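Final report, closing paragraph on structural work. Over the funding period we assembled a curated collection of sequence-structure pairs, and we close with a single example.
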Amino acid sequence: MITPMFIGVLFALSAGLVWGLVFVAPLLLPEYSALLLSFARYLAFGVIALPLAWLDRRNLAGFVAADWLEALKLSTVGNVLYYLCLAAAIQRAGGPLPTMIIGTLPVVIAISSNLRDAKRDGRLPWLKLLPSLALIAAGIACVNQVELAHLRAQADLDVSRYASGALLALGAVACWTWYPLRNADWLRTHAQRSPRSWATAQGLATLPLALAGYAVLWLWSATLGTQPWGHGADFVMPLGPQPLRYVGLMLAIGLLASWLGTLCWNEASQRLPTTLAGQLIVFETLSALAYAFMLRGQWPQPLTLLGIALLVAGVIWALRIKPV
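Its predicted structure, as stored:
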């Protein structure tokens, strides 16, 4: 029998598969600053949301000013600020290290939700939850050990650059600890609302923010001849040195990772306890790792595979726990 929890897990898996794509874009576009990547991604998300909003206009008409304000807050922190920190971290520290730091989200969100949402979702007993958290943490540690060894083997290793990348990744963790908890609050309070409409509303709320940010960057470049956090006068606005790749990647990520990923996550959030949904963000980490190794053209090392197995085991363990 297919249960709502099983369907919720499938939606969380789908969200993780498309969210993993955002980790490779900064590696494919190293000439573009994190600000340009973040604003362009959500500008694409907002543009894609416009025709979807027209098709869903009846449901969106039921949103009041407070709903739109909440969508703007979620979009600012969970979309623009999160991806700004993540893209900057990946460009400064490479793909694997930020991916592993982001991989701590299942543990951080599970603990935060268990402390915060026990009355609403039921409390997952700590003694039953601890083995799952320990398996996930051990898996992240295994993969992290391999990647740190890989980084230390590089002759041009810049410790301060990698340290700043790690700090930016921690900022991304903070943003995306706040986002799913706050997003779940709205979805649970408005259970009669469509998760699809809420995903589209967040895209619409992001559009003016991303448009204004991109315009400021363009004006900055035209006035000062440089990019904030980016390259100098040789970078030509608005689309830079690889316009087709840049536009194509941003549109793909805007549609798949932003709109479709948000839709799948909203569907999962309505069906799963927030503590459990938080642990399922591990699918994003696994997807990002798979895409990174594909980009490298390498197979994971045995310790990396062990870490991945521990991550999956931790998630499966968590699925067996019933909230009290």
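The longest helix spans residues 159-189. Residues 49 and 203 are 6 Å apart (CA to CA). We thank the funder for supporting this effort.
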